[in-house]
Amino acid sequence: MSEAARDPRLTRRRFLVLTSLVVSGAGLLQACGQQAPAAKPAESKPAEAAKPAAPAATTAPAAPAAQPAPAQKPADAKPAAAAGTPKRGGTLTALVQNDWTSLDPPFEIGAGVGFNMLFEGWVRLERNDANTAWEFKPALLAEWDLKPDQATLKLQPGVKFHDGTPWDAKAAKWNLDRTIFHPQSRLRGNLAIALDASQEDQAALDRLKTPDLDTFDFSSKAIEVVDDLTVRIRLSRPWAPLISTLSEAATYPVSPTAFAQAGKAAFGKAPVGAGPFKFVEWVPNTRVVLEKNPDYWRKGADGNALPYLDRIVYRLVIDDSVRLLELKSGSAQFMESVQGKDIAQVRNDPSMVFIDSAEQGISRRLTFDGKNPASPFVKHPELRKAMQYGIDREALAKTLGFDSGTPDKTLFPPGHLAHDPNAPFYAPDIPKAQQIVKDVLAKDPSLAVNGKIPVMLTVISRAVDRQQSEILKQMAANIGFDLDIEVLERAAYVAKIVQLPGKPGADYHISTVQNGVTLLDPDSSLRAYFHSAGGQNYPHVNPFDEIIDKAAGTYDLAERKKLYLDFMKQDYEQSLMVYMWFQKYNWLHSAKVKNFVPGNGGLWNLSTVWME
Amino acid sequence: MTAYLGRRLIEMVPVVILVTAVSFGLIFVLPGDPAMLIIGDRSAGSPELYESLRRDLGLDRPVYLQYVDWLGRVVRGDFGKSTRDREPIVNGLKVRLPITLELSALAMLLSLAIAIPAGILAAVRPNSIWDALGSIVALGGIAMPSFFLAILLIFLLAVQFQLLPPSGFERFTDSPGRNLQLMILPAVTLGLGLAGPLMRQVRSGLLEILGQEYITTARAKGLRPRVVLLGHALRNALIPIITVIGLQVGRLLGGTVIVETMFGIPGIGRWAVDSILLRDFPVVQAVCLIMAIGVLLANLLADLIYAVVDPRIAYR
Amino acid sequence: MSTLALEDRSAGRVNVARFADARAFTRRLLRTRLVGPSLAVILLLSIFSLFPRQFSLFDPVADQFYAKANQGPSLEHPLGTDYLGRDISSRIVAGARISMLVGVISVGIGLVVGVSFGVLGGYLGGWIDTIVMRLADVIWAFPSLILALAITSALGSGIGNAMIAIGVLNVPFFARLARGSTLSARELDYVLAARTLGSTPLRIMVRHLLPNIAAPVIVQASLAFGVAVTTEASLSFLGVGAKPPTPSWGVDLQVGYQYLSNNAVQALVPGTAIVICVLAFNFLGDGLRTALDPKLWQRQH
């Protein structure tokens, strides 16, 4: 080795150069750090923050929430009494976990998260004033009257879309036509069923051959304009879920004039609604920005028009851990779906407010393919009950859900219209489960391989489902099943498990699914998951069509509850779904955000929220 | 020389066409289709909806026809429309490609800033403690899966010490300062992942050269060690370093996939992954094509520099 | 010649493996930085892979103790427990087998396929050479993770398919290496002599050409091993890696990083394991290259 390399001067100089580079680099980083915009909490006032009225778990709804409301006067927006005085101005950054595909409500995949403030719905599903139950409050609809053969909708007067188009019966009819009859509208199946002239209208649609999906100039016969502020829908039968469906994001009215001008593709990128905020920009994959609508029709506590905020920035952050980090670091102020394991620490954090709901959440279920002749659960349906008895729901809930998980029992948790404490459910009973399996093997020994029944568990490539599968494998081994786990990414999974009408899914044995539980009319979830016309029929069989249609076809609440109890009993017997555990919906926001009250599902009402 | 260049470019063409054929072939081998994904999850669908979507997305035509059509259009610069949002893909490329290029360039600069000093140090003091430490730091970047490195950096720098924002993206045209600030963590994550092979190349290249006769001659002539090092050795070692940089482009583009996902940067890498998972085939095909061309051109450039500068290379 | 990749150039130096002088070789090898510790690590991992049960305190898959989940190191569980209450140290031992398997098989696939094609193409030349190099270029041109993702999406997730995907990614490296070396070696005197004497191409390739490429291929294999381990972890992150309940380091890291704020050990341990394993193979590879490449010997004393 030459002297040069051993030369101490050389080495020292090199070392000094390196060190100075590192030091100056660190200095640069610091300088950058200090210029970080003050999304960090500056001086926060002591937590005299008024806690928003958190929806507590109620045992039974006080008033029937889904009844057709008697003719109501439009209520003024009332201030939450305990919240303090609203301050105007400011920009709220809210984090969204799923990317947007379109901002046009009927064509958007998501549940309205991250753009609902652009729009005003027909009705709003919220807690009533006494905070005892959920009810449908007027929004763009002022009153409604449901009869067996028609529904009369009276519109809210004095409302305009962001582009100045008035909200009137013509606009209402156009929106209903689009939501119900456009071939690509998401809720098409739900509403078209009950319309009288759907036969006429469907025939007319068919005759159109290739309806121009871009402008969709179609006027139905079933929906009529009565006068300037009244629209009538002719029904072929009583349809109890009608108002509930009109509270969903997919039905949000948009401005017909703006749509006609822009066409479907362009409108979906820059929509015009009637909501408290107007559209500013949508950077795909990144964010949606809204600013306040100065002509919004609702008024705040100070007598001036809502909303209090100046701007909302919805940012897309897909990674769960990173979302929480964003809130902690102060670069965002609002998010939902805090993971169970993080709840304990955010509850103790005085700079944040954590809210959860025992009535809304995600129900994690195990489904059986009810049609696959190769599945042991079809060959011997009693094996399904073995799984029902053999799964330790408590362990699943606590291990994966931590504070936000509870064992699930039936389809409808307390607080729901169709909840019934008399509904039968399965309690864990390992010896019974093991006995069932032994009995079946005695009848049919060829089923077993090495003493256990081989079963394929197909799960989607999602963290929770993978973790669940590891637990389920052990639990199933305990009672006599040998689970082989198959992980599919979403596209492959949907092709296999989900049975779309007219498009049968492939065969599987069992799978785990997550279904949202919200306060909508019970028909919406039953129709989606258990009905042959639904879009998420996992068991691939439909023994429940009749009872579901019957329960939707009457306005008599007592009758409906009886029918839903019947459904739950049949469900218990058929045992096509195991209700494993329930993960409560939650929301987390900075302590500087005031007066947030959770609504239904992912529709955050930020119009009555202000920032300190 | 020009003949060589021309020949190489022509040789690229069949490769590029094969790449497009493979990415088109994905339609056959990947289960599931985009229409199903769009409606299959959260809506009460209907058969008409599914069929209507399929027609709308052009999924009902045989794939061979689609391929030939596509080739014809691509040659004219039309990459078609994304099945997810019906946007012309060219618009998406115009927006996302510069973002990934910016990220890649920053990452490359950072990795050079780490690799060159570490490599020099290691070569000058081989097998010493400096060599070991420098190697661990540089190679640690490729040893650690990038998503782990990303979350550690976010955790340390954004949450614990609140030096930088955790994630997000701001367009350079909107706010250059904020854009660069948000690019620091992703560029560091990506750059650390590249520094290893570069450092190794600097080290071994320098070692090789420093042992050669002309270096000994230079020292015998009495030139100061620093001049010897920087003036002669490093300059000669730079050539293979440039080559290695060119060869790293494939790894660089692959690395953007995870980094862009973690930090929420809407670049090409993330677009590619999202499109594969969502079966947005037109985008997959377009992005594969662009990336392949990028890698091939970078390789070609590296080879050219090498061949030009080192006349000892005989190329046929 | 299509690409003058650096690997080609270094392979172009005829490297008749210097294994003959074993003592000198070993001395050169061990003098290179950190080779000693790396060999020790690799030996340890190999032992874990061959005898996992002997080194595990608990069953890494079945012993789930939910009540003890997410705990830090203790007497009973020296590295703590994961989110299902499983013993982390046992999972690390079991994961060693998976990682070594992934490395061996995926590098093996790349090596066997790549070297075969490379030697064939380099020796026979002509259109065979063109086809081989074009195919290698096609794989090379796809950004690695995207190609791996496409392959595993097509074949289905799981360790086996991940190994195939990573193996495919490795083919171009070995093909180029083998081809470059073959191109230089085939003009050598003794190879020409063998040809004149009537040896079949196959015999020539196996007896004369393969030994030449042994050195750079071994070096490349060592480095590719490390890349395979991290690629498996990245595939697990994207959701197409090892499927449950395989105790792979990549999966453990991916799950553990979600629990970083609860119990950091859960992520740090598999992460460190991956880093150490990959570094070991990298340093070994560097040492092998130094020991086998005559040009680099002069720096050693």
Distance from N terminus to C terminus of chain A (CA atoms, Å) equals 68 Å
The overall pLDDT of chain A, averaged over residues, is 82
Could you name the ranges of chain B where pLDDT drops below 50 across 5 or more consecutive residues?
Answer: none
Q: How many separate helices of chain A? A: 18
How many helices of chain B in DSSP terms?
A: 13
| Secondary structure: number of strands of chain A | 19
CATH superfamily of the largest domain in chain B: MetI-like
Classify the helix fraction of chain A into a percent range.
25-40%
* Rg of chain B, nearest Å: 24 Å
- The share of residues in extended strands of chain A comes to 15-25%
* Rg measurement of chain A, Å: 27 Å
Order of helix and strand elements from N to C terminus of chain B = HHHHHHHHHHHHH
Q: Percent helix among the residues of chain B? A: over 70%
Task: Tell the overall outline of chain B.
Answer: globular
Q: What distance lies between the first and last C-alpha atoms of chain B, to the nearest angstrom?
A: 11 Å
Morphology of chain A: globular
How would you characterize this protein structure?
The complex is a heterotrimer of chains A (612), B (316) and C (301). Chain A has helices at 3-6, 8-34, 169-181, 188-192, 198-207, 242-245, 256-267, 320-329, 340-347, 376-379, 382-390, 393-401, 430-443, 463-479, 490-497, 522-530, 545-552, 557-574, and strands at 91-96, 123-127, 134-138, 141-146, 150-155, 223-227, 230-234, 277-283, 287-292, 311-316, 334-336, 352-368, 405-407, 453-460, 481-488, 510-517, 577-590, 593-594, 610-611. Chain A is an alpha+beta fold. In chain A, α17 (545-552) packs antiparallel against α18 (557-574). The N and C termini of chain A lie far apart (68 Å). In chain A, 52% of the residues are buried. Chain B has two domains: 2-75, no CATH class; 98-309, MetI-like fold, CATH 1.10.3720.10. The longest helix of chain C has 37 residues, at 88-124. The relative contact order of chain C is 0.17. The model of chain C is unreliable at 1-18 (pLDDT under 50). Chains B and C meet through α1, α6, α7, α8 and α10 of B and α6, α7, α10, α11 and α12 of C.
